[in-house]
Amino acid sequence: MNPEASLFSVKKASFSAHGKFLLTGEYAVLDNVDALAIPLKLDQRLEIHPRTDELITWTSYNADGSIWFEDSFLISQLTDVRFKGEKEVTKKLVQILRTALKLIEATNFDQGFDALTRLDFDYQSGMGTSSTLISMVAQWLGCDAYALQFECFGGSGYDIACAQADSPVVYNYNDGQPQEVPISYKPSFKDQLYFIYLNQKQNSRDSIASFDPQHLTDENRERLNEMPKKFLETEDDLEAFQEVIGKHEQIIGELIGVEPVKLRLFPDYKGAIKSLGGWGGDFVLVTGDEEAMKYFQEKGYQKMYRWKEVVLDS
């Protein structure tokens, strides 16, 4: 251990990170398949304010301004491995902070602090509450965000790539040595692209656990690796884009043994529908115009965003 790095001095600071959507390669991205991911204009922000005592307070505000989490504990508890915290979020927060301190070889803070987080999106929406937090803590404490993510949450890390990206990326997990290639992706028909929330949160860890890479055949791997390129090739052709979506949904459906969301929930919808990330919750990408969106509103799906409203670099 580097003795000069044994203490971390707390100073007033602020950080931000982008939310995300995964357009291609869900599940398969865990097994080194290229995936197209997009950062969002919707962020989470972190403010750090030093205290004069040894208390750590953490307050997290949701997009509507309400507090969705708050707790406090002492510095001595943070460094005491027997301390877990009573709240589930506290347990994960303590793990994140301890892991980050370990990664930078720091044993302690030299004083307490107040931490405030604020979201532009609902914390249960699947847009990246955890990944943006990981990114901001990594920025603050100076550790590797991927290493922090993999130790605390697992997963592929594509959401960490999005957190600090300025544009869409083609991402590959690469056996834990992530590769990210920034690209320009601006569909000419973005006025006909909507993100619709399915009114239920999908647990990322459950999605990860449900994926068996043995079901990923060489043929499907090759087809999925081509999907980011297919999305780019069809960014000026809505009809061709919709065909690509249909093929992608079929491949993933066969891979995980789940019926695509359009067939399961919206079989009579005329446009294309694609799951984003873990199937079964969170958001879907839908093609159609404003009038077509009434179809979903009438079925009780009220939370929706236009592509150009939320996608960074759009």
UniProtKB/TrEMBL annotation:
UniProt feature coiled coil, ranges: none
UniProt-listed InterPro entries: GHMP_GYDIA-like, Ribosomal_Su5_D2-typ_SF, Ribsml_uS5_D2-typ_fold_subgr
Name of protein: GHMP kinase
